[in-house]
Write a sequence for this structure.
């Protein structure tokens, strides 16, 4: 003779199984998004580096740029403290 779960037991297991599967899908989506954003950040960093190299050629490698106002300060004339 085979035994059978109660309706409540079966519904609880089915609900939890469904929640596990939904959580797995959400996690997979987040992993995909993370991969996308990492690639996007790397692309931005490459573009930043190209512009940075152009600015180093133009203003010198001892210069600092204030990103808030665009001011370029040459560090060659500053004394070492």
């Amino acid at each position: 003779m085979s035994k059978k779960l109660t309706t409540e037991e079966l519904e609880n297991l089915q609900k939890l199984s469904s929640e596990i599967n939904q959580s797995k899908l959400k996690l997979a989506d987040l992993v995909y998004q993370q991969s996308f954003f990492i690639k996007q950040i790397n692309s931005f960093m490459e573009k930043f580096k190209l512009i940075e190299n152009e600015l180093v050629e133009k203003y010198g490698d001892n210069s600092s740029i204030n990103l808030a106002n665009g001011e370029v300060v040459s560090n060659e004339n500053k004394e070492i403290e």
